[in-house]
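Notes, p. 3: input format for complexes.
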Amino acid sequence: MKKALITGITGQDGAYLTGLLLQKGYEVHGIKRRSSLFNTERIDPFYEDPHVPHKHLILHYGDLTDSTNLIRIIQEVQPDEIYNLGAMSHVQVSFETPEYTANADGIGTLRILEAVRLLGLISKTKVYQASTSELYGLVQAVPQNETTPFYPRSPYAIAKLYAYWITVNYREAYGMFACNGILFNHESPLRGETFVTRKITRAVAKIALGLQDTLYLGNLDAQRDWGHAKDYVEGMWRILQQEQPEDFVLATGITTRIRDFVGMAFAEVGVELSFEGKAEHEIAKVTACKGKYKIPVGQIVVKVDPRYYRPTEVDLLIGDASKAKEKLGWQPQYTLAAMVQEMVASDIKLFEKDQLLKNSGFDIKNEFE
Ligand code: NDP
Ligand code: GDR
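Output follows (369 residues plus NDP):
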């Protein structure tokens, strides 16, 4: 039985990858951080009673900022494959926590690679590094592929640049099977609530259910190449099954503006919008509402709030995944439309409970964002 170790197992990709690897018969080990609240919700569907022998999913407390902890876990597990998905992954938050981001996302990767080397596991353990399309940053050329120059535009992307190159260096210097997956944005119903797609689908659900009036967003002109996380974790696995270690771009090749994602998500609840005004004065109003949800025509459902603008923005991402198609036989199965439909439907289901409570006279809690 192959053993995999996943850092960031409690995140979106960690959860989909866990499902995939368990299905493939792996023993899956994951590193979770100690938190004052439960943080395993995304992987709870795979829960196994820790008292039962021969478990397939085993969690270890740990942190990418703690070398001794990583060395101990890797020594104990002796993994065939490590998927380094753990990271402070929010681009805007990285401007507020740049040093921590460098430590966890940049040096954290070094700690993993160095642990494999020091423990004499180079010929046994393959390492996947979660690299990102944010490396491309300021547009140099489109579509972006494995040879497009990098120009990172945030502390997050710059930490990930270090992680990218240290992975390449350990491969070249020590012959380690270490690969970068340069993944473009990928989303799902499990996407973190403060990334733009999930923020939008949650707000659409709440507005449709009468639990919220307005969604506040930042730059509506940015363009992203959005795929589905389920497709992308399959690509991660395939990258580590190659004969030779190499880096790969995973992307759909289609880019969409934030504004158009907003339109698609509202269309799922029968709402048509018109966008009016420019930049920080832009709003979106309901122009028609058909179907079961009753949102008044004329209601302003989106407003721009410059609080969500970034000091430096990545304007355009569009990936070219021809190498992955050719060498890994990988291509995305989900369309953006199917993914938006799945995300909105999932968030409506989530908030129907709140609607029930509200209609029964209970207070609904607000959330910080
Ligand atoms: P999430 O933000 O959903 O998950 C991040 C995971 O990392 C969580 O499990 C989190 O734990 C964990 N983590 C954060 N800090 C640390 C730390 N110091 N030590 C150990 N674990 C930590 O991200 P995604 O699942 O979306 O992304 C997975 C990886 O892929 C990330 O590295 C991200 O940067 C990268 N990536 C993501 C893309 C995307 O579009 N989703 C595209 C390209 C790259 P906790 O649950 O406790 O917060
Ligand atoms: P990104 O994802 O920065 O591409 O990083 P995010 O969804 O946060 O932003 C995408 C674009 O939307 C614009 N935007 C907003 N973003 C957020 N979060 N909130 C808003 O209110 C809002 N309004 C507009 C942003 O300015 C940006 O242009 C994601 C993360 O998963 C990274 O970890 C990963 O490496 C990259 O994708 C690829």
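The radius of gyration is 21 Å.
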